[in-house]
C-alpha cells in the first residue's frame, strides 16, 4: 500500500461547508485510509464558482487517492429525494441555477450520491463512530447552525417529506424562539455580546465585543473563565431540554452530539446530560446513552462515503 492509501482506495466522501471541503477515503472494510481538506475561496452566492472549486477538489482526490469506486457528497441543505437536487441551502443560495450532482458527474465521470450533511454525519457516527453497536441513534450537530438526524433500525430516517431531523427548529419557549437562535455558534456569540457589559471580570472583557468569536468563548472557558463557562453551560441546558423531547417521543438508545461547539466537549455535554435527565421520562432516559461524537469534522464525509458504498450493494 502506498503512503496515502491509494492502492486500497474504494469509497470517497466529500463534505462541502463554508469553512472547508473535506475528503475522506475508505477501504473496502470502511476504515479511513486517508483524508485531506481545502479552504474554499468562491463567494457564497457564486454557485458556479463553488461547483468549479468542488470539481477541482474532487480531481485532487482522484490524484491523491487513486481510482475509487463510489463518490458521496454531503452538503449543508435540504434535498429533494425524488430529483436528488438541493431544495434549500444557505451555503448555496443560488442552487436552483444548477443541477449540482449532474454537473459534478459530467466533469468527473463519477456517479454521485448526494446527502444532507447532518444525515451523513449521523450515519458515519452510527457505523464507525460513537454510535457503533446501537440499533437506533439520534445525532445532533452544533455549529454555525444546528441540525439533527435519525438512524432507526440501521437506516437514515427521512420522514414523510424527506426533511426529518431539523433539530435547530425546536421551539424553546412559547414565543417561538428556536434552539438555533440561542445554541448555535452565532447564538452563543450573540448571547455573549449581549451580556458582555454585565461582567467586566471576564477575560473576554479585554476584547472588542463586536469581534468576539465562538473560539474566544471556548478558549476562555478552558481557562476557567466563569462568564464563558456560564455561556457554554447554558448552551448545553438549551440543547439538553430539546434532547429530552427526542428521548420522550422516540426512546432512542443512543444520542450523539457533534459539531464545532463540542470543542468545549465536557462542559457542554455535562450540561446537556443534566438537563435531559431532569426533563425526560425517567425509564426512557435510563435506557439512553448521550455521547460526544468521535469523528469530529470528518463525520459527514465519512458517513456519505459509507452511504455511497451501499449503492454497490443494491
Question: What's the quick description here?
Answer:
By secondary structure, the chain is α/β, with parallel strands linked by helices. It has 10 helices and 12 strands.
Q: What can you tell me about this protein's structure?
A:
The chain is of the alpha/beta class and 314 residues long. The protein folds into two domains: 6-123 and 298-310, 2-Layer Sandwich (Nucleotidyltransferase, domain 5); 132-294, ATPase, nucleotide binding domain (Nucleotidyltransferase, domain 5, 2-Layer Sandwich), CATH 3.30.420. 39% of the residues lie in helices and 19% in strands. It is built from ten helices and twelve strands. The protein has helices at 47-65, 100-108, 117-128, 179-183, 185-195, 214-222, 226-250, 265-279, 282-286, 299-310; strands at residues 11-16, 21-26, 32-38, 70-75, 78-79, 86-88, 112-116, 137-142, 146-152, 155-157, 254-258, 289-292. The strands form three sheets. The chain has a five-stranded mixed β-sheet. It has a five-stranded mixed β-sheet with strand order 10-9-8-11-12, sandwiched between helices. A two-stranded antiparallel ribbon has the order 5-6. A hairpin with a 5-residue loop joins strand 2 and strand 3 (32-38). Helix 3 (117-128) crosses helix 10. The chain is globular and about 55 Å long. The relative contact order is 0.16. The model is unreliable at 1-6 (pLDDT under 50).
Q: At the first level of CATH, what is the class of the largest domain?
A: Alpha Beta
SSE series: EEEHEEEHEHEEEHHHHEHHEH
Going by CATH, the architecture of the largest domain would be 2-Layer Sandwich
Q: What share of the residues lie within helices?
A: 25-40%
Mean pLDDT score, rounded?
A: 88
Query: Radius of gyration, rounded?
Result: 20 Å
What do we call the CATH homologous superfamily of the largest domain? ATPase, nucleotide binding domain
Outline, from the CA principal axes? Answer: globular
* CATH topology tier name of the largest domain: Nucleotidyltransferase, domain 5
* Main sheet summary: 5 strands, mixed
Structural class: alpha/beta
How many domain units? Answer: 2
Task: List the strand order in the largest sheet.
Answer: 3-2-1-4-7
Termini separation:
28 Å
Number of beta strands: 12
Percent of residues in β-strands: 15-25%
Low-confidence stretches: 1-6
Counting DSSP H or I runs of 4 or more residues, the number of helices is 10
